[in-house]
Write a structure and sequence with these properties.
CATH class of chain A: Alpha Beta
CATH architecture of the largest domain in chain B: 3-Layer(aba) Sandwich
Oligomer: heterodimer
Largest interface: A-B, 65 and 63 residues
Number of domains of chain B: 2
Distance between the termini of chain B: 32 Å
Radius of gyration of chain B: 23 Å
Bound molecules: zinc ion
Number of strands of chain A: 26
Number of strands of chain B: 18
CATH topology of the largest domain in chain B: Rossmann fold
Strand content of chain A: 15-25%
CATH architecture of chain A: Alpha-Beta Barrel
Order of helices and strands of chain B: EEHEHEHEHEHHEEEHHEHEHEEHEEEEEH
Radius of gyration of chain A: 23 Å
Chain lengths: 544, 363
């Protein structure tokens, strides 16, 4: 079928387009305007904005810890809307089905779950398989696992570490590698209550710095497109901007992605010893082109923090609201679930909110700063439309700032910043650069040959309204959203890499698992055929 | 041998699934109960319940909710058998039937071996509250027993003594609790292991309070043994599919969770449920309700019913007759398992798919 989107404002930063024009779709792809053929269907999108489908690189939408959060907080997601026969289970609030629908409604077509524990990978993929419409990806967690720490303690060569990373990515069907408070979760099992970049993991004698270095090198050696995805030490602590700055230096000029950097942008000034260090951090990011960051913006309201940084979550238990938390000393990282309420009247929360916005606005290059709330840790992804408004409108920011404690505002630079994101910059940050960061050459742009993942918005003075409900969304060339409503389900792919490696490491792992766990290593595999839809995966090439 | 029966008489699978669809779709509030099946079967059951505006429950819900209610009212600290095996220097066992619930428990936790990742590399210690009779030692490790005629009182007493608060118990018991409290406080990575019929919500909450207190100075965590027939898998799949665990109804069109209202046995006994689908693929279990209700049963050939169900379909056992995905107690994860004796017996998911197709398609 040949489809024409006629006369929209096409915003495609990859091809430096921001102009009125047509987009042609045939089957799942964008095609060049065909000679002498009439479209089977024409959508008049004149006056509308046409962008590629948005890509979220870091959103906790699946896996054991997310599910524990669902079970912990039934009171936060009671249902109310009747079912739609075309969308089974979508009225189950916070269900995987609702997640896919809500993202699609906002024009997102690809979302990456950034924390899948190797031993929980099958559950992660079962959950992702039940997220309709979207393509998905999963980042596999290493860095607190005893096997890796053992390799480092024994000074094994980098090749063994690299093979182990490749084997784990293959077994877990990961799109990339995540490391979360490297060594900190293991140190917590030895009763450490804090863990910094140069602290040493008991029993293993290795530092966080060393773990990062080894995993970063492995990802480079394997040519995995997405750089090592790092959740640093000391998340959330006053003065932790020093940790972030030191870790940027620790990257040694090589590619490294810093997750939810807002949570590391804190100085220690002011009456509470808590202030914004975002300007200093943004300057460091600007000065280090090897570094990419996603923001992890905090927004006011009830949420729940879900993190495999079990040490930090344990330390956060006393701040839980409602007052109940789960702390899981799992294999390797484990995790913690701590409900949290960000309050506009709270000085610390207001500073956190400002830090995120400062980072968005002070990092110069929209290709290196990514749009996230670390869903749901800074805020649920449903707040994205409001966040777009805040970064695109200094007036929207000024109105929000006026409601906040002025002693908090004074500890940030936010009021001095005039920048407003343009639509083109939004398209870079949410489409073009995520595709580049993840190595997804088939999306994030609107040129012929690309996947027809397309979002069409109706411009509105109310920016949040425009982004909350797209006029049309196409996934793989098929209309899935019309006038802000999902029309039906289709089942997307989960994107993964498959780097090559020396299989000798698998024999070692088999022995290690039998000796230590008394279990077979391949017990934790993710066979395609047990997932509910055929051909669940799409491979992303590791470039050479 | 027939693979299906309708009203006690042999029927083809087509006839049986057609009849099942008719019974279930005619009902005002059908309940899917048992739910002893693999993840694919649970997924099919929940999707079918939604389509039918029915409710669903698991046969071992009562045991699951004594833990889950504590989790969602109070919070929980827990670990995996792997971590307990490799790190626990102290095990605090609670309940007289742990090895009945999980016969391989001590094989899995290997208390007789030194904990591989423990810095001190000392012999492990085991304290057992409400001990199993006759278990004076486990793999050469002596058990420090604490008899507990009333679990909550004993756990409360132990918690008080760990915190060095006074207790109103007789001296002999207090001395025993003090000796146990001393072992717990000195643990480097202690694990409280609990499960079985003796533990209600209050005792689980008291035990978790003790674990939290111990974490003020050292590391301590928990290991719940849970229940059989993939109950933990049902909790997980239900969680991601609806946001809630089982005992959830779609009577109002959206998932509505209530552990009392949507208890399958209560729904049938009260007459609120007017048809039932019983699923038990792991064990030849049959429903515990006594009231007659039009019943569709997906069970192994050995299952015995006093009255033949309206529809009975023989199914295979996950990981025996067909590949299956379920929650593994030994791994504390959902895992895929290959069929050990592949057969052509139908899986629950396959039968549910045929039923769903009769009434407008499946998920
Ligand atoms: Zn995150």
């Amino acid at each position: 079928m040949l489809v024409l989107l006629k006369g929209g404002r096409i915003v495609d930063p990859v091809h430096q387009r921001d102009e009125v024009g047509d987009i042609w779709i045939e089957e799942s792809r964008i095609v060049a305007a065909p000679q002498g053929r009439q479209p089977d269907v024409t959508y008049d999108v004149s006056g509308k904005i046409v962008m590629a489908g948005a890509i979220d690189i870091h959103s906790h939408i699946a896996g054991g810890n997310v599910n524990t959060a669902r079970l912990l907080l039934p009171e936060l997601h009671r249902g109310h809307s009747p079912r739609s026969p075309a969308l089974p289970l979508a009225t189950g609030r916070w269900s995987t089905f609702e997640t896919g629908c809500t993202y699609a409604t906002m024009g997102f077509t690809t979302v990456v779950e950034p924390a899948v524990a190797p031993h929980q990978a099958l559950q992660g993929h079962l959950e992702l398989a039940d997220v309709p419409i979207l393509d998905k990806g999963a980042l596999t967690i290493l860095g607190n696992d005893d096997f890796l720490l053992g390799l480092l303690r024994d000074n094994e060569n980098q090749a063994a570490i690299t093979d182990y990373v490749a084997s784990t990515l293959a077994a877990t069907n990961g799109l990339g590698l995540k490391v979360i408070n490297p060594g900190g979760a293991t140190a917590f099992k030895y009763n450490a209550r804090s863990f910094g970049l140069d602290d040493v993991v008991p029993f293993y004698g290795v530092t966080s710095r060393r773990i990062i270095e080894a995993l970063q090198q492995a990802i480079m050696d394997l040519h995995v497109p997405h750089p090592l995805h790092l959740h640093c030490n000391n998340l959330g602590l006053p003065g932790n901007v020093e940790t972030a700055l030191a870790t940027i230096e620790a990257a040694r000029g090589k590619p490294l992605h810093f997750a939810h950097i807002q949570f590391y942008a804190y100085g220690s000034e002011g009456d509470l010893g808590f202030s914004s260090g975002a300007a200093e951090l943004a300057a460091a990011i600007n000065a280090h082109p090897n570094v990419t960051v996603d923001v992890g913006q905090a927004m006011f309201g009830q949420t729940v923090t879900i993190s495999s940084d079990v040490l930090r979550q344990f330390n956060g238990v006393s701040t839980a609201k409602p007052r109940k938390s789960v702390i899981f000393d799992g294999d390797a990282n484990g995790g913690g679930i701590v409900p949290y309420l960000y309050r506009e009247t709270d000085v610390v929360n207001a500073i956190q909110w400002a830090c995120g916005l400062e980072l968005f606005l002070l990092v110069d290059d929209p290709w290196r700063v990514f749009f996230t709330t670390d869903h749901p840790n800074g805020a649920p992804f449903t707040t994205y439309p409001n966040l777009f408004a805040l970064i695109m409108s200094r007036q929207a920011r000024a109105e929000a700032v006026a409601r906040q404690p002025q002693d908090a505002v004074a500890l940030t630079t936010l009021s001095s910043i005039d920048r407003e994101y343009t639509l083109n910059e939004i398209a870079i940050m949410t489409r073009a650069s995520p595709a580049k960061l993840l190595g997804l050459t088939d999306r994030g742009h609107l040129a012929p040959g690309g996947l027809a993942d397309i979002a069409v918005y109706t411009p509105d003075a109310d920016i949040a309204k425009m982004f909350r409900a797209a006029h049309l969304v196409f996934k793989d060339g098929e209309v899935v959203v019309r006038d802000g409503r999902v029309t039906h389900y289709r089942w997307g792919k989960t994107l993964k890499v498959k780097p090559g490696y020396d299989p000798a490491i698998d024999r070692r792992l088999t022995g290690y698992y039998e000796q230590h766990y008394g279990l077979s290593h391949n017990m934790f595999a993710v066979p395609d055929h047990v997932l509910p839809h055929a051909e669940p995966f799409q491979e992303v090439a590791c470039s050479r | 041998m027939s693979e299906a029966e309708v009203d006690g008489k042999p029927a083809s699978i087509e006839e049986a699934t057609e009849c099942a669809a008719a019974i279930l779709s005619r009902a005002r509030l059908p309940v899917i109960a048992g739910l002893g099946t693999d993840i694919a079967g649970i997924r099919g059951s929940i999707a079918l319940a939604e389509r039918l505006h029915g409710a669903y429950d698991h046969m071992h819900s009562a045991r699951i909710f004594s833990d889950l209610d504590v989790l969602r009212q109070f919070g929980l600290m827990f670990t995996t058998p792997n971590e307990a095996r490799l790190r626990a220097d102290v095990l605090l066992c609670v309940g007289p039937d742990l090895t009945r619930v999980w016969p391989q428990l001590f094989e899995r936790l290997a208390p007789g071996e030194l904990p591989v990742f423990d810095l001190a590399q000392q012999k492990r210690k085991i304290v057992w509250i409400a001990p199993e009779p006759g278990l004076g030692e486990i793999a050469g490790v002596p058990v420090v027993p604490i008899e507990a005629p009333d679990l909550v009182t004993t756990l409360g007493g132990l918690r008080a003594r760990v915190a060095e608060r006074p207790v109103a118990l007789d001296d002999a018991i207090t001395q025993k609790l003090d000796a146990a409290a001393d072992i717990l406080r000195k643990a480097r990575f202690g694990v409280a292991v609990w499960g079985g019929a003796a533990l209600d919500k209050l005792s689980v909450e008291m035990l978790q309070g003790l674990v939290l207190d111990l974490n003020k100075t050292t590391r301590f965590t928990g290991l719940a043994l849970g229940a059989e027939s993939n109950a933990a898998g049902a909790v997980q799949a239900s969680g991601w599919m609806t946001g809630f665990p089982m005992r959830t109804s779609f009577g109002r069109g959206y998932p509505d969770h209530d552990t009392w209202r949507f208890d399958a046995t209560r729904l049938v006994e009260s007459g609120e449920a007017d048809a039932a689908l019983w699923v038990s693929a792991y064990e030849a279990e049959t429903p515990s309700w006594t009231r007659h209700v039009p019943l569709v049963a997906l069970v192994p050939a050995e299952a015995h019913f006093a009255q033949p169900p309206a529809v009975r379909i023989d199914i295979g056992r996950p990981a025996v007759d067909h590949d299956g995905v379920d929650y593994s107690r030994e791994a504390a994860a959902i895992v895929a398992r290959k069929a050990s004796h592949p057969s052509n017996k139908a899986s629950v998911a396959a039968v549910l798919l045929r039923i769903a197709q009769q009434i407008g398609g499946a998920l």
